């Protein structure tokens, strides 16, 4: 079970707000992925449900949860990624995230195609490694190493560590014929970081990272990465999209 940061009055207010937001989202086709165990596959006990997150005043490389509901917080170290129970093909994803100084996370569409989340504040020229980049392909052996440059964001739109940041993604899944042969690559149709469009119509010939060897599929889960450092997520929602004619 996910540990809970308690605070009775804060919890009550947060629950009411979450119910209102979920109702509004459902009316527009959004699916809200809350912090309950039904949304994610076997969440680690290192994840906590809180009302907010902030930098740890004793260590700015860690986070601490504030009592309440609606925010998923991994406070320190590394832990198991969050992987959604449900799977999607063409989908729109929106969420907010917070990372402490020096932390590294990411979001993977279908568990395979990653947009990087990393502390990139003040970076003058962003690369694919920085926040918003399409992560580089890599090999695990003989040691982990990258084999291409990935795709850099158009601009560095990252905020300072300890601030909430927003990410919106419109993703198009790969296409396959009746025999299972791929006929079209996956695409990030649009990626917006903190209100700035950083990618448009980016074609993905392969999955990213060392997953580029993995078999691609029409549908897959949403993955929120936590195996590289502390991170918090809130207002995570997805909206399935109608397929575009090829």
Summarize the SSE layout with pairings.
Blueprint lengths: L2 E2 L3 H20 L3 E2 L14 E10 L2 E16 L7 E2 L7 E8 L5 E6 L3 E6 L19 E2 L5 E2 L18 E8 L2 E2 L5 E3 L1 E8 L2 E9 L18 E2 L6 E10 L6
Describe the structure.
- With 246 residues, this protein is mainly beta.
- It has one domain: Sandwich (Jelly Rolls), CATH 2.60.120.560.
- It has 1 helix and 17 strands.
- The chain has one helix spanning 8-27, and strands at residues 3-4, 31-32, 47-56, 59-74, 82-83, 91-98, 104-109, 113-118, 138-139, 145-146, 165-172, 175-176, 182-184, 186-193, 196-204, 223-224, 231-240.
- Strands 1, 2, 3, 4, 6, 11, 14, 15 and 17 form a 9-stranded mixed β-sheet that branches. Strands 5-16-7-8 form a 4-stranded antiparallel β-sheet, with no helix packed on it. It has a two-stranded antiparallel sheet with strand order 9-10.
- The protein is globular and about 55 Å long.
